[in-house]
Amino acid sequence: MSLFLHKSNFLLRTIYPEFLWRLDDSEPVIYLTFDDGPIPDITEFALEQLDKYAAQATFFCIGDNVRKHTDIFYNVIEAGHAIGNHTYNHLNGWKTDDETYLKNVYKAQDELRVATTLFRPPYGRIRRSQALDLLDTHSIVMWDVLSGDFDTSLSPQTCLRKTIQYTEPGSIVVFHDSLKAWPNMRYVLPRMLAHFAERGYEFRAVPQLIYA
């Protein structure tokens, strides 16, 4: 049985209103995001599927994976997708002191070598003190819909059904281009893209914010 919420609830959005949970719902637009890459074959599969629908997405990359798979990272950039910071070592902010956490975030930024104002905390877990520091220069991007592709107890069919069920105009949807999520993601992503494309939806990247 899955132990996570597929849909971010009102309480979470109320407690952390300064975080980005969803975007404008006046148009049929979905904001797909991918966490934890780049990973050989898996990230490339995601890029191929997105290309079939002229879909743009946001890839929240782990700095150490960028270091190990730089060529794939550049493929993401060349395909026109947005890049976000996901720390260097996928740190859990609740279990990491502020200084270590923030250094890890900025180390990842150095490895990305592209300007980005988008940050997503691994596991969605970040202390308020850490967030306050980052919010000076970053948009902390959470999600409206968590596909659950990382949950090995969740069948691909259930993962697809739940993701489609909860996705609405303006939804920020999370997938993972990771080894753990691969069995579900490879089933769900192409079918979700086809489902919403047939209904006239567009897929866009989360916009970068401009700070003074």
Automatic annotation (TrEMBL):
The name this protein goes by in its record: Polysaccharide deacetylase family protein
PROSITE patterns assigned: NODB
PANTHER family: CHITIN DEACETYLASE 1-RELATED, GLYCOSYL TRANSFERASE-RELATED
Organism of this sequence: Nibrella viscosa
Annotated keywords: Hydrolase, Metal-binding
Record-linked Pfam families: Polysacc_deac_1
Keyword Metal-binding in annotation: yes
Signal in keyword set: no
Residue ranges of every copy of the NodB homology domain listed in the record: 28-212
